[in-house]
Amino acid sequence: MTTTPRIEFPCDYPVKVIAEAEEGLLHEVVSIAQRHDPTLVMTRVTERMSRNGAYNAITIQLWATGEGQLQRLFEELKECQAVRMVL
């Protein structure tokens, strides 16, 4: 039995980061993402604050080249102290 990959690389891949709102968070998240995708520009990044202002949701449209790249990115983002979830 052959299995078809769920994602065909390379492709645009959305990564969402939920984190406690703190100064410099966007810069830190984008810097990490740019290490894994040097082509990333700010026009491919959106940020939304929660209703009460306690959390930020940052969405990055990453150019994904493979599962290893995504796994390393997710691991590095999860090491950030303010980050609560990476989707």
What does it look like?
The chain is an alpha+beta fold. It has a single domain, classed as ACT domain (Alpha-Beta Plaits), CATH 3.30.70.260. The chain has 2 helices and 4 strands. It has helices spanning 25-36, 67-78; strands spanning 11-20, 45-49, 55-64, 83-86. The chain has a 4-stranded antiparallel beta sheet, covered by helices on one side. A hairpin with a 5-residue loop joins strand 2 (45-49) and strand 3 (55-64). The longest helix is centred in the middle third of the chain and has 12 residues, at 25-36. The N and C termini lie far apart (30 Å). The model has no long low-confidence stretch (mean pLDDT 95).
Write a concise synopsis of the structure shown.
With 87 residues, this protein is of the alpha+beta class. It contains two helices and four strands. Helix 1 packs antiparallel against helix 2.
Number of helices: 2
Strand content: 25-35%
CATH domain topology = Alpha-Beta Plaits
- Looking at CATH, the homologous superfamily is ACT domain
What percent of the residues sit in helical stretches (DSSP H or I)?
25-40%
Integer count of domains: 1
Task: Report low-confidence residues grouped into runs of 5 or more.
Answer: none
List the helices and strands and how they pair.
Blueprint lengths: L10 E10 L4 H12 L8 E5 L5 E10 L2 H12 L4 E4 L1
Antiparallel strand pairs: 1-3, 1-4, 2-3
Please tag this protein with its features.
87 residues, alpha+beta, Alpha-Beta Plaits, four-stranded antiparallel β-sheet, 33% strand
